[in-house]
Fold this sequence. Notes:
The protein is low in regular secondary structure. It is 14% helix and 12% strand. It has seven helices and eight strands; from the N terminus they run H-H-H-H-E-H-E-E-H-E-E-E-E-E-H. It has helices spanning 15-19, 26-31, 52-55, 57-60, 81-84, 109-112, 223-230, and strands at 78-79, 92-93, 97-99, 140-144, 149-151, 191-193, 204-209, 214-218. It has a four-stranded antiparallel β-sheet, with no helix packed on it. Strand 7 and strand 8 form a beta hairpin. The chain starts with 14 loop residues before the first helix and ends in a 14-residue tail after the last helix.
Amino acid sequence: xxxxxxxxxxxxxxxxxxxxxxxxxxxxxxxxxxxxxxxxxxxxxxxxxxxxxxxxxxxxxxxxxxxxxxxxxxxxxxxxxxxxxxxxxxxxxxxxxxxxxxxxxxxxxxxxxxxxxxxxxxxxxxxxxxxxxxxxxxxxxxxxxxxxxxxxxxxxxxxxxxxxxxxxxxxxxxxxxxxxxxxxxxxxxxxxxxxxxxxxxxxxxxxxxxxxxxxxxxxxxxxxxxxxxxxxxxxxxxxxxxxx
Length: 244
């Protein structure tokens, strides 16, 4: 992130790391050095707790976790390099599903946001069911992404690198293949920008809501509706009949 770095150093863990034991990946979780960093990226003079390329975490980040992969997406499998990779010559295994979170790369962004614009997750977020004022059945928790992205890089399960910030439905429409900063139209399956909700499925993408339900959302959904579904407590509760 950019801005004031957390005291004591960063870990760069993705939230998926902590969920591994709950998706039949406890063995992988136990191999990780959870007290040290999983990704090597730092900004604004920040420091890391440990070195992923030597503490074993970068090597484990190459593990493809099938739970996080959509079978219809034939995009690339890995991120590389210091900015987007886990560190050293190691590769980061990409995913097709990620947490609903604001795309901002400012440090402490989630903590500093007003409650009515907060999304379900973010950097060091601590969302509780009681804080999802719009109702768990009306608030997105996870969103689908592609394993190819034109501006930025896809997200990985093990760590966070530069602009690997989750999925932000408030930013742009579903299946937006157009790169916003220069207007380039990319082939379907390559989302134009990082943090964009989208998939290789025709006509839309899947999203999981706070109550555990999964819905296929049309790419023609109104942007205002999409934003309201992403914010956990903006007071704009949308009837499911109006989601499409």
